[in-house]
Design brief:
By secondary structure, the chain is α/β, with parallel strands linked by helices. It has a single domain (3-257, 395-480), classed as Alpha-Beta Complex (Amidase signature (AS) enzymes), CATH 3.90.1300.10. Helices cover 38% and strands 13% of the residues. Strands 1-3-2-4-6-5-10-11-9-7-8 form an eleven-stranded mixed beta sheet, sandwiched between helices. Helix 2 (22-40) runs antiparallel to helix 3 (48-63), helix 9 (304-319) packs across helix 11 and helix 9 crosses helix 12. The longest helix is centred in the last third of the chain and has 21 residues, at 371-391. The structure holds glutamine. Glutamine binds at residues 127-130, 153, 173-177, 205, 312, 424.
């Protein structure tokens, strides 16, 4: 048995029965990283020494019978969550050598659960992108086809899960960055409701949209990770004070009586035939499990892309103002005066996509334009929220594709920002509305590339998404397939 290919719940059972140890499991994961990561390039910073020490400590706890669901399980964390003592780059040259003095709440919760942190995974710089090609260090490759992108911006986490370079992972989703790479890599990914998971220690991209969530090999693991990372945090005032359910209780058979909406606007021009076929077939499977499907309309969907690409860059331009060469990371030392130092630091420290966003965002927020751009986008955002509210009066969940096409080729959209932005067309609305969204594998293209089904739900109704995804997963075998590397 290849230990690295285990899921969280499988590994947990074996650890509990003492058939394997956490040290053996972590060694297997690092052997796997050694074998395949020069091809996949999922990790920016593997943290082997620390992970092996944590695994040893976890084994000790297990021996003493003090075991929780994540004890001794090697997990990867997207390199935009601060991890005390482990370099946190955000995929940017500007933070290349930044070692945070504290941990994000999520990293801390995982450590408190005695999970083993295997390392930090690659991403588009500051999570801005859909392909992981905007990482300042290297692109990640899709484990199913190394000539293709893994999706982004959590491409490193999704590829690491798909390539069995960790047992599970953490990603972040501002406009699709968990769901889209999961769809492209054949993993399960959940963007929780805005406020469900603390963002403390998550390096901010667009603060009104960012959420942290699990990236896993199956739906059961998704529920297990949710149980550990959710909950109110006094350090994040947007985290909601609401009890956390046991998400594994949603892992039960039956979808009888469930009303599923199929939004008619979630069909894009130029949509890939294989995606349409896989999603249509998936909807049939869910109907066959007892759900009732009906077409619904979310008329403001057509404005979501424009709205997002004003709000996200505007918030980013403000959040990224702190990287000025004074407090953190990279500083240009050639300048003669302070203004020149700021300018050189930011021009040389940020990559082209981040600079593009800062310029768009600064413009959208500038005096005289604020009302016309950020103000207008915020109004349209309200209309998008109302579309969902109205629809959820008569539906439990919505089903749609995650992306219009399977993973595209590396380099294919790099010179065409608009084409890159369009790959998020189905994932952005959930962030604008703050609702949860899940991606579950629902088929393969003729070329053998994974395709994901998106399940959207009401605020704080993650359990229903997990229930639908679980039932779908039980009825299909897509999640059992692994790429050959
Ligand atoms: N691809 C989108 C963007 O570039 C979403 C990124 C994300 O969710 N972090 O903004």
């Amino acid at each position: 048995m290849d230990l690295y290919s285990l899921t969280i719940h499988e590994a947990h059972e074996l650890l509990k029965k003492r058939e394997i140890s956490s040290v053996e499991l972590a060694s297997a994961v690092f052997d796997r990283i050694g074998q395949v990561d020069d091809k996949v390039c999922a990790y920016l910073t593997p943290a082997k020494d620390r992970a092996m020490a944590d695994a040893g400590a976890a084994d000790e706890l297990i021996r003493r019978g003090e075991m929780r669901p994540l004890t001794g399980i090697p997990l990867a964390i997207k390199d935009i969550l601060c991890t005390e003592g482990i370099r946190t780059t955000c995929g940017s040259k500007i933070l290349e050598d930044f070692i945070p003095p504290y941990s994000s709440t999520v990293a801390k919760k995982l450590a408190d659960a005695h999970a083993v942190i295997a390392g930090k995974t690659n991403l588009d710089e500051f999570a801005m992108g859909s392909s992981t090609e905007h990482s300042a260090f290297m692109p990640t490759h899709n484990p199913w086809d190394l000539t293709r992108i893994p999706g982004g911006s959590s491409g490193g986490s999704a590829a690491a899960v798909a390539a069995d370079e960790c047992i599970g992972a953490i990603g972040t989703d501002t406009g699709g960055s968990i769901r889209q790479p999961c769809s492209h890599c054949g993993a399960v990914g959940l963007k929780p409701t805005y406020g469900r998971v603390s963002r403390f220690g998550l390096v901010a991209f667009a603060s009104s949209l960012d959420q942290i969530g699990p990236i896993t090999k199956d739906v059961t693991d998704c529920a297990l990770l949710m149980n550990e990372i959710c909950g109110h945090d006094p350090m994040d005032s947007t985290s909601v004070s609401r009890s956390v359910p046991d998400y594994t209780e949603a892992l039960r058979p039956g979808l009888q009586g469930l009303v599923v909406g199929i939004p008619k606007e979630y069909r894009a021009e130029g949509m890939d035939e294989d995606v349409t076929e896989a999603v249509t077939a998936a909807i049939k499977v869910i109907e066959g499990l007892g759900a009732r499907c009906k077409e619904v309309s979310l008329p403001h969907t057509q404005y979501a892309l424009a709205t997002y690409y004003l709000i996200a860059p505007a918030e980013a331009s403000s959040n990224l103002a702190r990287y000025d060469g004074v407090k953190y990371g990279f500083r240009d030392n050639t300048a003669d005066d302070l203004t020149q130092m700021y300018q050189n630091t930011r021009s040389n420290g940020f990559g082209p996509e981040v600079q593009r966003r800062i310029i768009i965002g600064t413009y959208a927020l500038s005096a005289g334009y604020y009302e016309a751009y950020y103000g207008k986008a915020s109004q349209v955002r309200t209309l998008i929220i109302e579309d969902f509210k109205r629809t959820f009066e008569t539906c439990d969940v919505l089903l749609s594709p995650v992306t219009p096409t399977p993973a595209f080729k590396l380099g294919e959209k790099l010179d065409d920002p608009l084409a890159m932005y369009l790959s998020d067309i189905f994932t952005l609305p959930a962030n604008l509305a703050g609702i949860p969204g899940l991606s579950v594998p629902c088929g393969f293209s003729k070329q053998g590339l994974p395709i994901g089904l998106q399940i959207l739900g009401k605020h704080f109704d993650e359990e229903k998404l997990i229930r639908v995804a679980y039932n779908f997963e039980q009825a299909t075998d897509y999640h059992t397939r692994r790429p050959r590397l």
